[in-house]
Amino acid sequence: MADVVQYRLERMVNELDDLERRGLFTRREIAEIVKQRRKFEYRLKRPSPLKQDYLAYIEYETQLDSLRRLRKKSVARELTNKGIDYKKKTKKSVSDYAGVVRIVDIYRLAVMRYKGDIDLWFRYLEFCRERRHGKMKKVLAQAIRFHPKVPGLWIYAAAWEFDHNLNVAAARALMQSGLRVCPTSEELWIEYLRMELTYLNKLKARKVALGEDEGTLIRDKKVADDKQWRDENDDLFMPLNDEREKNGSDSESKETPGKVDMFREQGFSMLRTIYAGAVEAVPSSLVLRKRFFEVLDAVDLAHSEDMRNQILSEMRRDFSTEPEYWNWLARLEFDPETTEGMSEELMLSQTEKAIQVYEEALKVLPSATMFNIYSKFLMGVILLRKGEKVISGLSGQHATYVSYLLGLYEKAETIGCITEDLAYQHISFYLQVGRLDEARKLADKLCCEKFSDSIQLWLLKASLEVRHITRDFLSPTKYDLLSIFGLVKDVLTKASVSKAESLWLMALKLFSTQKEYFNKLVDLSIVSLAKNGDSDNGFSLSSAIVNFVFQKEGIQNAREMYKRFLALPHPGLAIYRNCIELETNLASVSNKDGLLNARKLYESALTTYSQNVSLWQNYYLLETKMGTSETASAVYWRARKILKDTAALITPDF
Question: Ranges for the U3 small nucleolar RNA-associated protein 6 N-terminal domain (predicted)?
């Protein structure tokens, strides 16, 4: 092994001498380069070299070659300033290409060792492409030979032939070979079509540049949409000069029959042929049909309307039982997420068309999934009109969409397609439109009948009751408090703390002035946390209760409260952090017990979370700011002794 490494290093002598002779590296730097290369070469000669060994060597050589180029430019600049022509004085030598050759060689060794690593092959190809290396074609052939079933390699090879070599015939042959090997690859079919259309568009652009043709195969979507809307609403427009309009149309009609755009015809023929082959190879793919439709929509071809109708009719024939098809078809008419630049009249017209598609879908496919998709569309339309999450004060057409959505939820419940998610949406929507009483009635009905086991709906019902009490009564009666507490208690007992976060906060706020009920809530929280433990990150129930007690009753009661929580089996890191912050803030305003309690909390937390770096850092910062140099040093040396990840000790916080 040592002989092989030494032999490879000796082959670098000419390159290193050239680097020193041209003043790009000093002798000391060259010695360091030799040292690093020897280390990497020994790694590669191990019985089982790792992929990371090859990548590290490549990274080092890449950075070294970049440094060489920068220094070469610097030397050239200095010689130019002295009036010396650098190009005449120094021609290209061995050091100019040795680095790239070495990197290519390392890549070759890597891919031979890890033939199945596609990512490594693509790295190799990208490097050859960026450096315009002559082995690109050979590497592509090797990659395809080892991985003929990877469509991305065929696409990459065809793109390189098409863009770099400008060899359309070779690119087409590669795409067709790829389709023979991978006939079910949707990406290959689409990229083949795009390549052919791009080539036709380039030919047409050349004709336009020569003055022999005009236009392009790329369709302007905005102009097409406006033209379609004007055609559909032709009765709204009156021409200013009927005679001129007529004469213009006559002249166009005279020119059109004799004028056939060869490129548009050829593009249509190409799309129809490739589409037929793709559908035959992958008949069950809805995504493939959608992508063909998107390509057709983006280009201006002859008979494109006929082709569009053919694709839509075949999709309806093959995918009418799939909700995703109907959702796509409706959003093809109007998508609330893409309305930029559309006029109000066009938006209303397109929305009505989309609603008609969804209504037809419900007749063909009355399922819970279809109702859910339709409801999301209507919600998107309503929010688009209002521009807010709270929907109120809608009128006219906007109010019609609200009634559509409410009717949709009721229809789903009537025909038995209501699900827990739809029921939750229905109740929440009543709340959004400001109809709290109807939301309460619906929640009570659904929770007591069909969804009696749904924790999600019971949480929503309890939240609505709390909202009703706090909205309608400034000082709730004892009966109201008792009934709402009973409901909240039942729900909180069933649900986990993480799911019932909003209800816990609502209940704590409602009963914060009711000592008896607040204490019962605390007892309930202790039982829940003792069973499931508190959170280390995110919402912490114990922290929320401690903060409520601190704001209402002061620090002494808050300390008693957090001691109760810290005595539980799994208190969680969040409660420690919250209490430490509380005591630290008090210590900063000269509270005599604050610093002492903060230290106790840190020590208690570190017994459980001894490997938490941020906890040690915060403890060290506390001692730096409020303690002495001795206590800060003691914390630092303890952290250094206990932490397994000692790299964290060199951060600025330490």
Answer: 9-89
